[in-house]
Amino acid sequence: MAVASGTTTYKRMFLRWEVLRGWVPAIVFAAISVAIELLYFDYMVGRGMMDEAFSIPIGAIQ
Q: Nearest CA to 32 among 24, 20, 22, 43?
């Protein structure tokens, strides 16, 4: 039985959407998380409760 080319294209698009459907919420969540962190940092610096100069130790690197 032959499959029409339109059906094949639809299946490819559907599979592509299935992959994107998993990534889109993760990317949106990460963007919102970063935005909240930046807003909180700006708020704390504005209130004078946090110094802008700081270092974040990562393992042995400082």
A: 24
